[in-house]
Amino acid sequence: MIESRNPFTETVLETFAEDSEATLERRLESAEQTFDSWAETALPHRSQCLLKVAERLADEKDELARVIVEEMGKPVTQAVAEVEKCALVCRYYAEHAAGFLAPEMRRSDAAKSYVRQDPLGPVLAIMPWNFPFWQVFRFAAPALMAGNVGLLKHASNVPRCALSIQDVFLRSGLPEGAFQTLLVSAETTLKLIRDRRVKAVTLTGSEEAGRQVARTAGDVLKKCVLELGGSDAFIVLEDADIREVARVATLSRCLNNGQSCIAAKRFIVLESVVDTFTDALTTEMSRLKTGDPSHPETDLGPLARSDLRDLLHRQAQATVREGGRLETGGVLPDGRGYFYPPTVISGVTPEMTAGREELFGPVAALMVASDEKCALQLANASRFGLGASIWTRDVEKAEHLATRIHSGSVFVNGMVKSDPRLPFGGIKDSGFGRELSVEGIREFTNCKTVSIG
């Protein structure tokens, strides 16, 4: 049984039976059959379908945002913005896919040679709960425009979001088998990867889930893309505007209740300004309004599940025992809801829990760097490599430092975010492959050489 529970009220919203073997078989057959026709559908028609999806998302953003708020606790203004961003990625690929997929002529000793981007078939998407709409659409929009069909295995705590997404696609005119939600267990998901009808798999989730998916996909030689965890470095140099940077740091750390793989987590600050930054960040974090996520004025809602809050608290406590200094927060609140207070821990080193592990909630770990070389060493002293940001008035210096940071993206004087126009993904334990932009749509295509002699 799959349970949808409101993390603010702690009440069960709805329960769902897992799909039976017969249901799964029907869905796989439908995906395979639909792919044959969808792949042959002209790009302009696919584009029109995706534009209708974008229009429906925009028209129904408040209702869809309510589903997100109730099921995983995201503050409502952020939930509305998430749905709007899904509409944006649909429009982006509707407008640009033809160019990304166009045959590319190549010179060779043949009379004519070119490279095509052909769809692969049904793609299994294993998606997380933290951005329950955006994570799905940033896979679905390029995959569908490329001519693939989608099978969604969403996180077990957001089944209502998963079914709402499927409903949006169906009501927008896509064929019934083009995008289907599968209500299945993790064990069944691994079996699905092995099914001959599933041609590729993409996962956004934990490191352990990524390893399981990669092993299973590797056994059957199927393409996979993994977007895993992150412990992003937020580097503050001595010439930065400390007050403004502290404001953005708070937003980056606590957006989505701090449950974001690309949230700033390790704040690496030059020694000369660390005291000023610590005071400023602690002040900004303490100002956040925690409460009912359905209220527009709420900055910070509950964490999505009780076990996630328990893990975060254990990590924070362990870091303090290891020598970190608690500047604010760090105490479990009484009352209803899976809330965790905005927390700042200073004096963190790479060996401490907050320096080694990903903290998935509103806890900021402050690290001191003696100079820029030390800041780089601290930034790279992590098994994660998703994103990083550098804050300084010297942009030329920042661009030079960016070349030496081991991560999938580096933002200068801006918080790390995903943008349909830019490739997104990580290295090291943060995964491999890219989503979004031209790189994202080509992850699930066959790069086919055609040579005519």
Instruction: Report, as a whole number of angstroms, the end-to-end distance.
Output: 58 Å
Strand composition percent = 15-25%
| Biggest beta-sheet profile | 7 strands, mixed
- Structural Rg: 22 Å
Number of extended strands = 20
Which strand order spans the largest sheet, edge to edge or round the barrel? Answer: 12-13-14-11-10-16-17
Q: Specify the overall morphology.
A: globular
**Helicity, as a percent range:** 40-55%
**What's the pLDDT, averaged over the residues?**
98
Which residues sit in consecutive blocks of at least 5 with pLDDT less than 50?
Answer: none
Count of individual helical segments: 15
What's the layout of helices and strands?
Layout: E1 2-5, E2 12-16, H1 21-38, H2 43-59, H3 61-72, H4 76-101, E3 104-105, E4 112-119, E5 122-126, H5 134-145, E6 149-153, H6 159-171, E7 179-181, H7 186-194, E8 200-204, H8 207-219, E9 223-227, E10 232-236, H9 242-254, E11 264-270, H10 274-287, H11 306-321, E12 325-328, E13 343-346, H12 353-356, E14 363-369, H13 372-380, E15 384-385, E16 387-391, H14 395-402, E17 409-412, E18 427-428, E19 431-432, H15 437-442, E20 445-452
Parallel strand pairs: 5-6, 5-8, 6-7, 8-9, 10-11, 10-16, 11-14, 13-14, 16-17
Antiparallel strand pairs: 1-2, 3-4, 4-20, 9-19, 12-13, 15-18
